[in-house]
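Here's what a typical entry looks like (MFS transporter):
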Amino acid sequence: MPAVDTGASTEQVDASAVAPAVSKTSDAVSATSDATKLSPGDPGHGRMRLALFAAGLSTFALLYSTQALLPEISRALHAAPAQASWTVSGATIGLAVAVLPLAALSERFGRRRMLTVSMAVAVALALVIPFAPSLPVLIALRTLQGAAVAGVPASAMAFLSDEVRARHLVGAVGLFVAGNSVGGMSGRILTGWVTEAWGWRAGLGAVAVTSLLCAVAFRILVPPARHFTPAPLHPRRVAATVRAHLGNPLLMRLYAIGLLFMTVFGAVYTVIGYRLVAEPFGLSQGLVGSIFVIYLVGTAASATAGRLNARLGRRGTLYLGIGTASAGLLISLADSIVAVVAGLVLITAGFFAGHAVASGSVSHTATHGAAQASALYQMSYYIGSSLGGALGAVAFAAGGWAATVALALGAMVLAAGITLYATRRAAVLARA
Protein backbone atom coordinates (compact mmCIF):
# COMPACT_ATOMS: atom_id res chain seq x y z
CA MET A 1 0.00 0.00 0.00
CA PRO A 2 1.38 3.45 -0.83
CA ALA A 3 2.61 5.69 1.92
CA VAL A 4 0.47 8.35 3.51
CA ASP A 5 1.68 11.69 2.26
CA THR A 6 1.72 13.81 5.38
CA GLY A 7 3.68 16.66 4.00
CA ALA A 8 7.21 15.53 4.75
CA SER A 9 9.83 14.69 2.19
CA THR A 10 12.57 12.11 2.31
CA GLU A 11 15.75 11.78 0.32
CA GLN A 12 16.60 8.39 -1.13
CA VAL A 13 19.88 7.43 -2.75
CA ASP A 14 19.77 5.42 -5.96
CA ALA A 15 22.36 2.77 -5.12
CA SER A 16 22.43 1.43 -8.68
CA ALA A 17 23.60 4.80 -9.95
CA VAL A 18 26.48 4.81 -7.49
CA ALA A 19 27.65 1.24 -7.93
CA PRO A 20 25.93 -0.52 -10.84
CA ALA A 21 28.17 -3.56 -10.83
CA VAL A 22 27.53 -4.23 -7.15
CA SER A 23 23.82 -3.69 -7.67
CA LYS A 24 23.66 -6.22 -10.52
CA THR A 25 25.52 -8.81 -8.46
CA SER A 26 23.27 -8.20 -5.49
CA ASP A 27 20.16 -8.47 -7.65
CA ALA A 28 21.38 -11.77 -9.08
CA VAL A 29 22.07 -13.18 -5.62
CA SER A 30 18.68 -11.96 -4.39
CA ALA A 31 16.91 -13.51 -7.37
CA THR A 32 18.68 -16.84 -6.81
CA SER A 33 17.76 -16.80 -3.12
CA ASP A 34 14.14 -15.95 -3.88
CA ALA A 35 13.91 -18.81 -6.39
CA THR A 36 14.66 -21.33 -3.63
CA LYS A 37 11.81 -20.09 -1.41
CA LEU A 38 8.34 -21.60 -1.12
CA SER A 39 5.74 -21.07 -3.82
CA PRO A 40 2.34 -22.66 -4.60
CA GLY A 41 2.79 -26.32 -5.45
CA ASP A 42 5.78 -26.80 -3.16
CA PRO A 43 5.14 -29.31 -0.34
CA GLY A 44 5.72 -26.73 2.41
CA HIS A 45 3.84 -23.77 0.95
CA GLY A 46 0.33 -24.81 1.93
CA ARG A 47 1.57 -25.98 5.32
CA MET A 48 3.25 -22.62 5.92
CA ARG A 49 0.08 -20.69 5.11
CA LEU A 50 -2.11 -22.88 7.32
CA ALA A 51 0.42 -22.82 10.16
CA LEU A 52 0.53 -19.01 10.22
CA PHE A 53 -3.28 -18.84 9.96
CA ALA A 54 -3.47 -21.06 13.06
CA ALA A 55 -0.92 -18.87 14.85
CA GLY A 56 -2.87 -15.70 14.09
CA LEU A 57 -6.17 -17.25 15.10
CA SER A 58 -4.79 -18.59 18.38
CA THR A 59 -2.95 -15.55 19.62
CA PHE A 60 -5.56 -12.93 18.77
CA ALA A 61 -8.34 -15.04 20.25
CA LEU A 62 -6.30 -15.03 23.46
CA LEU A 63 -5.35 -11.35 23.38
CA TYR A 64 -8.93 -10.08 23.57
CA SER A 65 -10.54 -13.09 25.21
CA THR A 66 -11.92 -11.14 28.20
CA GLN A 67 -13.32 -8.17 26.26
CA ALA A 68 -16.77 -9.63 25.60
CA LEU A 69 -16.92 -10.94 29.18
CA LEU A 70 -16.29 -7.68 31.03
CA PRO A 71 -19.86 -7.24 32.37
CA GLU A 72 -19.83 -10.81 33.73
CA ILE A 73 -16.32 -10.42 35.20
CA SER A 74 -17.44 -7.19 36.88
CA ARG A 75 -20.45 -8.95 38.38
CA ALA A 76 -18.60 -12.07 39.52
CA LEU A 77 -15.56 -10.29 40.96
CA HIS A 78 -17.44 -7.21 42.24
CA ALA A 79 -15.35 -4.90 40.05
CA ALA A 80 -16.21 -1.57 38.46
CA PRO A 81 -15.90 -1.31 34.66
CA ALA A 82 -12.75 0.78 35.02
CA GLN A 83 -11.16 -2.04 37.06
CA ALA A 84 -12.33 -4.98 34.93
CA SER A 85 -11.23 -3.22 31.72
CA TRP A 86 -7.62 -3.77 32.78
CA THR A 87 -7.98 -7.45 31.93
CA VAL A 88 -7.94 -6.19 28.33
CA SER A 89 -5.69 -3.13 28.70
CA GLY A 90 -3.11 -5.10 30.69
CA ALA A 91 -2.77 -7.63 27.88
CA THR A 92 -2.34 -4.97 25.20
CA ILE A 93 0.18 -3.07 27.34
CA GLY A 94 2.16 -6.30 27.74
CA LEU A 95 2.19 -6.74 23.99
CA ALA A 96 3.16 -3.10 23.36
CA VAL A 97 6.11 -3.30 25.75
CA ALA A 98 7.39 -6.67 24.52
CA VAL A 99 6.99 -6.45 20.75
CA LEU A 100 10.18 -4.49 20.02
CA PRO A 101 12.54 -6.57 22.24
CA LEU A 102 11.06 -9.83 20.90
CA ALA A 103 11.46 -8.62 17.31
CA ALA A 104 15.17 -8.06 18.05
CA LEU A 105 15.50 -11.50 19.69
CA SER A 106 13.90 -13.15 16.68
CA GLU A 107 16.76 -11.80 14.57
CA ARG A 108 19.18 -13.73 16.77
CA PHE A 109 17.31 -16.92 17.66
CA GLY A 110 15.01 -17.40 14.68
CA ARG A 111 11.45 -16.50 13.75
CA ARG A 112 10.16 -20.07 13.87
CA ARG A 113 11.56 -20.61 17.35
CA MET A 114 10.15 -17.29 18.57
CA LEU A 115 6.70 -18.14 17.21
CA THR A 116 6.77 -21.57 18.85
CA VAL A 117 7.92 -20.34 22.25
CA SER A 118 5.54 -17.38 22.28
CA MET A 119 2.53 -19.51 21.46
CA ALA A 120 3.52 -22.16 24.01
CA VAL A 121 3.87 -19.63 26.84
CA ALA A 122 0.66 -17.79 25.87
CA VAL A 123 -1.35 -21.02 25.78
CA ALA A 124 0.16 -22.25 29.08
CA LEU A 125 -0.96 -19.00 30.74
CA ALA A 126 -4.38 -19.35 29.08
CA LEU A 127 -4.86 -22.72 30.76
CA VAL A 128 -4.11 -21.16 34.16
CA ILE A 129 -6.06 -17.90 33.77
CA PRO A 130 -9.57 -19.40 34.28
CA PHE A 131 -8.50 -20.35 37.82
CA ALA A 132 -7.35 -16.83 38.80
CA PRO A 133 -8.65 -16.30 42.36
CA SER A 134 -9.00 -12.51 42.17
CA LEU A 135 -9.07 -9.59 39.77
CA PRO A 136 -5.46 -8.43 40.49
CA VAL A 137 -4.17 -11.94 39.77
CA LEU A 138 -6.27 -12.11 36.60
CA ILE A 139 -4.88 -8.77 35.40
CA ALA A 140 -1.30 -9.82 36.17
CA LEU A 141 -1.66 -13.09 34.28
CA ARG A 142 -3.29 -11.33 31.34
CA THR A 143 -0.43 -8.80 31.20
CA LEU A 144 2.10 -11.63 31.07
CA GLN A 145 0.02 -13.32 28.39
CA GLY A 146 0.03 -10.16 26.28
CA ALA A 147 3.83 -10.03 26.51
CA ALA A 148 4.02 -13.66 25.40
CA VAL A 149 1.63 -13.08 22.49
CA ALA A 150 3.90 -10.25 21.27
CA GLY A 151 6.31 -12.78 19.81
CA VAL A 152 3.80 -13.63 17.07
CA PRO A 153 3.36 -10.19 15.45
CA ALA A 154 7.06 -9.54 16.13
CA SER A 155 8.11 -12.57 14.05
CA ALA A 156 5.34 -13.72 11.71
CA MET A 157 5.76 -11.23 8.85
CA ALA A 158 9.54 -11.59 8.84
CA PHE A 159 9.23 -15.40 8.88
CA LEU A 160 6.95 -15.36 5.84
CA SER A 161 9.25 -12.91 4.08
CA ASP A 162 12.22 -15.22 4.77
CA GLU A 163 10.55 -18.37 3.49
CA VAL A 164 7.96 -17.46 0.81
CA ARG A 165 8.75 -16.19 -2.69
CA ALA A 166 8.21 -12.46 -3.07
CA ARG A 167 5.41 -12.65 -5.63
CA HIS A 168 3.41 -15.02 -3.41
CA LEU A 169 4.07 -13.15 -0.17
CA VAL A 170 0.96 -10.96 -0.23
CA GLY A 171 -1.32 -14.00 -0.27
CA ALA A 172 0.54 -15.63 2.61
CA VAL A 173 0.47 -12.44 4.67
CA GLY A 174 -3.22 -11.99 3.84
CA LEU A 175 -4.06 -15.41 5.26
CA PHE A 176 -2.13 -14.62 8.45
CA VAL A 177 -4.01 -11.32 8.82
CA ALA A 178 -7.26 -13.19 8.18
CA GLY A 179 -6.31 -15.51 11.05
CA ASN A 180 -5.87 -12.44 13.27
CA SER A 181 -9.30 -11.14 12.33
CA VAL A 182 -11.07 -14.50 12.62
CA GLY A 183 -9.33 -15.22 15.92
CA GLY A 184 -10.22 -11.86 17.42
CA MET A 185 -13.84 -12.22 16.35
CA SER A 186 -14.40 -15.90 17.09
CA GLY A 187 -12.69 -15.71 20.48
CA ARG A 188 -15.14 -13.03 21.64
CA ILE A 189 -18.16 -14.86 20.23
CA LEU A 190 -17.11 -18.21 21.70
CA THR A 191 -16.50 -16.78 25.17
CA GLY A 192 -19.81 -14.95 25.07
CA TRP A 193 -21.95 -18.03 24.42
CA VAL A 194 -19.97 -20.39 26.67
CA THR A 195 -20.10 -17.81 29.46
CA GLU A 196 -23.89 -17.53 29.14
CA ALA A 197 -24.18 -21.29 29.67
CA TRP A 198 -21.42 -22.06 32.19
CA GLY A 199 -19.83 -18.82 33.43
CA TRP A 200 -16.89 -16.62 32.50
CA ARG A 201 -14.24 -19.06 33.70
CA ALA A 202 -15.60 -21.73 31.35
CA GLY A 203 -15.62 -19.14 28.56
CA LEU A 204 -11.92 -18.42 29.04
CA GLY A 205 -11.26 -22.15 29.32
CA ALA A 206 -12.92 -22.74 25.94
CA VAL A 207 -10.64 -20.17 24.28
CA ALA A 208 -7.62 -21.74 26.00
CA VAL A 209 -8.45 -25.21 24.64
CA THR A 210 -9.12 -23.81 21.16
CA SER A 211 -5.80 -21.96 21.21
CA LEU A 212 -4.01 -25.09 22.42
CA LEU A 213 -5.34 -27.00 19.41
CA CYS A 214 -4.22 -24.18 17.11
CA ALA A 215 -0.75 -24.15 18.68
CA VAL A 216 -0.42 -27.92 18.18
CA ALA A 217 -1.57 -27.53 14.57
CA PHE A 218 1.01 -24.77 14.05
CA ARG A 219 3.83 -26.92 15.36
CA ILE A 220 2.82 -29.92 13.23
CA LEU A 221 2.31 -27.90 10.05
CA VAL A 222 5.07 -25.30 10.10
CA PRO A 223 7.99 -26.28 7.84
CA PRO A 224 11.62 -25.82 8.92
CA ALA A 225 13.21 -22.41 8.40
CA ARG A 226 15.56 -22.76 5.42
CA HIS A 227 16.56 -19.14 4.79
CA PHE A 228 17.10 -17.69 8.23
CA THR A 229 20.58 -16.45 9.07
CA PRO A 230 21.14 -15.55 12.74
CA ALA A 231 22.29 -12.00 13.31
CA PRO A 232 24.21 -10.85 16.37
CA LEU A 233 22.36 -8.67 18.82
CA HIS A 234 23.40 -5.03 18.67
CA PRO A 235 21.37 -3.21 21.33
CA ARG A 236 23.08 0.11 20.64
CA ARG A 237 22.41 -0.15 16.92
CA VAL A 238 18.76 -1.01 17.55
CA ALA A 239 18.47 1.89 20.02
CA ALA A 240 20.01 4.27 17.47
CA THR A 241 17.54 3.11 14.81
CA VAL A 242 14.62 3.55 17.20
CA ARG A 243 15.81 7.07 18.10
CA ALA A 244 16.06 7.95 14.42
CA HIS A 245 12.51 6.75 13.78
CA LEU A 246 11.18 8.67 16.79
CA GLY A 247 12.92 11.77 15.44
CA ASN A 248 11.20 11.42 12.04
CA PRO A 249 8.15 13.76 12.02
CA LEU A 250 6.43 11.77 9.29
CA LEU A 251 6.68 8.48 11.18
CA MET A 252 5.61 10.14 14.40
CA ARG A 253 2.45 11.39 12.70
CA LEU A 254 1.71 7.89 11.45
CA TYR A 255 2.27 6.46 14.93
CA ALA A 256 -0.02 9.09 16.45
CA ILE A 257 -2.78 8.41 13.90
CA GLY A 258 -2.60 4.67 14.59
CA LEU A 259 -2.72 5.30 18.34
CA LEU A 260 -5.74 7.62 18.07
CA PHE A 261 -7.75 5.31 15.82
CA MET A 262 -7.07 2.41 18.17
CA THR A 263 -8.02 4.54 21.19
CA VAL A 264 -11.48 4.91 19.65
CA PHE A 265 -11.74 1.22 18.80
CA GLY A 266 -10.52 0.11 22.23
CA ALA A 267 -12.89 2.44 24.08
CA VAL A 268 -15.95 1.46 22.06
CA TYR A 269 -15.51 -2.30 22.14
CA THR A 270 -14.41 -2.42 25.78
CA VAL A 271 -17.48 -0.52 26.97
CA ILE A 272 -20.17 -1.63 24.52
CA GLY A 273 -20.90 -4.83 26.46
CA TYR A 274 -21.78 -2.86 29.59
CA ARG A 275 -24.21 -0.72 27.62
CA LEU A 276 -25.91 -3.64 25.87
CA VAL A 277 -26.49 -5.78 28.97
CA ALA A 278 -28.16 -2.82 30.72
CA GLU A 279 -31.55 -1.29 29.98
CA PRO A 280 -33.07 -0.42 27.59
CA PHE A 281 -31.36 -3.27 25.70
CA GLY A 282 -30.94 -6.06 28.27
CA LEU A 283 -29.07 -8.39 25.90
CA SER A 284 -27.73 -11.74 27.10
CA GLN A 285 -23.99 -12.42 27.36
CA GLY A 286 -24.14 -14.61 24.26
CA LEU A 287 -25.77 -11.91 22.16
CA VAL A 288 -23.26 -9.34 23.40
CA GLY A 289 -20.44 -11.63 22.25
CA SER A 290 -22.12 -12.04 18.89
CA ILE A 291 -21.94 -8.27 18.32
CA PHE A 292 -18.28 -8.81 17.45
CA VAL A 293 -19.27 -10.42 14.16
CA ILE A 294 -19.23 -6.79 12.99
CA TYR A 295 -15.43 -7.27 12.76
CA LEU A 296 -16.10 -8.78 9.33
CA VAL A 297 -16.89 -5.23 8.20
CA GLY A 298 -13.32 -4.33 9.12
CA THR A 299 -11.91 -7.04 6.86
CA ALA A 300 -13.86 -5.57 3.92
CA ALA A 301 -12.86 -2.00 4.84
CA SER A 302 -9.17 -2.94 4.95
CA ALA A 303 -9.40 -4.48 1.49
CA THR A 304 -11.23 -1.39 0.16
CA ALA A 305 -8.70 1.08 1.56
CA GLY A 306 -6.32 0.54 -1.35
CA ARG A 307 -9.00 1.39 -3.92
CA LEU A 308 -10.02 4.44 -1.90
CA ASN A 309 -6.41 5.63 -1.98
CA ALA A 310 -6.48 5.60 -5.76
CA ARG A 311 -9.65 7.70 -5.87
CA LEU A 312 -9.32 10.04 -2.90
CA GLY A 313 -5.63 10.15 -2.20
CA ARG A 314 -4.06 9.00 1.01
CA ARG A 315 -5.05 11.95 3.16
CA GLY A 316 -8.52 11.83 1.62
CA THR A 317 -8.86 8.22 2.76
CA LEU A 318 -7.83 9.22 6.27
CA TYR A 319 -10.43 12.00 6.31
CA LEU A 320 -13.04 9.50 5.14
CA GLY A 321 -12.05 7.04 7.88
CA ILE A 322 -12.22 9.76 10.54
CA GLY A 323 -15.57 11.03 9.26
CA THR A 324 -17.06 7.54 9.03
CA ALA A 325 -16.00 6.59 12.56
CA SER A 326 -17.23 9.93 13.94
CA ALA A 327 -20.61 9.52 12.26
CA GLY A 328 -20.89 6.04 13.75
CA LEU A 329 -20.13 7.38 17.22
CA LEU A 330 -22.91 9.96 16.95
CA ILE A 331 -25.45 7.45 15.57
CA SER A 332 -24.66 5.03 18.41
CA LEU A 333 -25.96 7.55 20.96
CA ALA A 334 -29.57 6.63 20.11
CA ASP A 335 -31.29 4.15 22.43
CA SER A 336 -32.09 1.79 19.58
CA ILE A 337 -30.38 -1.52 18.90
CA VAL A 338 -30.59 -0.82 15.17
CA ALA A 339 -28.83 2.53 15.65
CA VAL A 340 -26.20 0.98 17.91
CA VAL A 341 -25.41 -1.78 15.40
CA ALA A 342 -25.33 0.72 12.52
CA GLY A 343 -23.02 2.95 14.56
CA LEU A 344 -20.69 0.05 15.33
CA VAL A 345 -20.56 -0.86 11.64
CA LEU A 346 -19.48 2.68 10.73
CA ILE A 347 -16.99 2.91 13.61
CA THR A 348 -15.45 -0.41 12.61
CA ALA A 349 -15.26 0.49 8.91
CA GLY A 350 -13.72 3.88 9.64
CA PHE A 351 -11.20 2.42 12.05
CA PHE A 352 -9.98 -0.30 9.72
CA ALA A 353 -9.72 2.10 6.77
CA GLY A 354 -7.59 4.53 8.78
CA HIS A 355 -5.49 1.79 10.32
CA ALA A 356 -4.86 0.18 6.93
CA VAL A 357 -3.59 3.46 5.47
CA ALA A 358 -1.38 4.34 8.45
CA SER A 359 0.11 0.88 9.03
CA GLY A 360 0.69 0.27 5.33
CA SER A 361 2.70 3.49 5.13
CA VAL A 362 5.20 2.91 7.91
CA SER A 363 7.58 0.44 6.28
CA HIS A 364 7.46 2.39 3.00
CA THR A 365 8.32 5.61 4.82
CA ALA A 366 11.23 4.17 6.84
CA THR A 367 14.38 4.45 4.73
CA HIS A 368 16.15 2.00 7.04
CA GLY A 369 15.26 -0.25 9.97
CA ALA A 370 11.84 -1.20 8.58
CA ALA A 371 11.38 -3.93 11.22
CA GLN A 372 11.92 -1.46 14.05
CA ALA A 373 9.65 1.10 12.36
CA SER A 374 6.88 -1.48 12.09
CA ALA A 375 7.40 -2.60 15.70
CA LEU A 376 7.11 1.00 16.88
CA TYR A 377 3.83 1.32 15.01
CA GLN A 378 2.57 -1.81 16.73
CA MET A 379 3.66 -0.39 20.07
CA SER A 380 1.74 2.84 19.51
CA TYR A 381 -1.24 0.90 18.16
CA TYR A 382 -1.54 -1.30 21.25
CA ILE A 383 -0.82 1.58 23.61
CA GLY A 384 -3.83 3.21 21.97
CA SER A 385 -5.84 0.06 22.64
CA SER A 386 -4.83 0.14 26.30
CA LEU A 387 -5.60 3.84 26.67
CA GLY A 388 -8.93 3.46 24.93
CA GLY A 389 -9.99 0.53 27.08
CA ALA A 390 -8.97 2.12 30.37
CA LEU A 391 -10.14 5.70 29.66
CA GLY A 392 -13.30 4.53 27.90
CA ALA A 393 -14.31 2.55 31.00
CA VAL A 394 -13.56 5.51 33.29
CA ALA A 395 -15.63 7.79 31.05
CA PHE A 396 -18.48 5.27 31.01
CA ALA A 397 -18.52 5.07 34.80
CA ALA A 398 -18.54 8.86 35.04
CA GLY A 399 -21.06 9.77 32.36
CA GLY A 400 -22.37 6.68 30.61
CA TRP A 401 -22.12 5.93 26.91
CA ALA A 402 -22.29 9.62 25.99
CA ALA A 403 -19.05 10.26 27.89
CA THR A 404 -17.31 7.37 26.12
CA VAL A 405 -18.49 8.76 22.78
CA ALA A 406 -17.17 12.21 23.73
CA LEU A 407 -13.76 10.70 24.53
CA ALA A 408 -13.67 8.86 21.20
CA LEU A 409 -14.76 11.94 19.25
CA GLY A 410 -11.94 13.87 20.91
CA ALA A 411 -9.46 11.29 19.61
CA MET A 412 -10.92 11.63 16.10
CA VAL A 413 -10.63 15.44 16.28
CA LEU A 414 -6.93 15.05 17.13
CA ALA A 415 -6.44 12.62 14.23
CA ALA A 416 -8.17 15.08 11.90
CA GLY A 417 -5.92 17.87 13.20
CA ILE A 418 -2.78 15.85 12.45
CA THR A 419 -4.03 15.05 8.95
CA LEU A 420 -5.03 18.68 8.33
CA TYR A 421 -1.57 19.85 9.43
CA ALA A 422 -0.06 17.41 6.93
CA THR A 423 -2.38 18.64 4.18
CA ARG A 424 -1.40 22.26 4.75
CA ARG A 425 2.28 21.38 4.96
CA ALA A 426 2.06 19.50 1.67
CA ALA A 427 0.42 22.54 0.07
CA VAL A 428 3.20 24.82 1.33
CA LEU A 429 5.89 22.47 -0.02
CA ALA A 430 4.10 22.25 -3.37
CA ARG A 431 4.18 26.04 -3.71
CA ALA A 432 7.84 26.29 -2.69
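The longest helix spans residues 370-431.

More examples are in the samples folder.
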